[in-house]
Design goal:
Blueprint: H1 2-26, H2 31-62, H3 69-89, H4 97-119, H5 124-145, H6 150-170
Protein name: PrsW family intramembrane metalloprotease
Transmembrane segments: 6-26, 33-51, 57-78, 99-118, 124-142, 151-170
Organism: Thiospirochaeta perfilievii
Length: 171
Amino acid sequence: MILEIVKTLLPSILVLILLYSVIQITIGVDRVLVYKALILGILAVLPALIFMKILGLIIIITIPINLPFLFFKLLSAINEEGFKYIAIKQFKDIPNRPVISLFVGGGFSLCETLYLTIENYNYSLIRSFTALPLHIITALLLSKSLSRKRYFVLSLFIHLFYNLTLFKIYN
């Protein structure tokens, strides 16, 4: 299991290190802000996960019919993008906010991939190469959404498309 976790997280960690190195060489960014962004991204997974578990239980208990699968995938996208948005909003006055938001998305991706790999090995290989780009792209859009709200909706649709595509591959 440890080897599976390492194999799953290593590509994302290496890409984040490479991105950080390129950003440092080209524009430079405060290392403390990068660490803070990574940590906030990682921490954003916990309330997102708790919220979805509680919401799932409430829906199962209170609604007698099965809701469409698409509805749950949409809720998942709204939930994850919402908590990433809250983390990114902490950096709204930072000049390099898009760069910093990239690391919020990276931290979120690492933690979510770790959790999902422990929960279900089937997704680990595909997630090791797809989750980081997804969360980086949506985090960049969320950063832009602080000034233009329509980018939040775009990040939701991208995340929803990813969720549905990944589900189709494995089921």
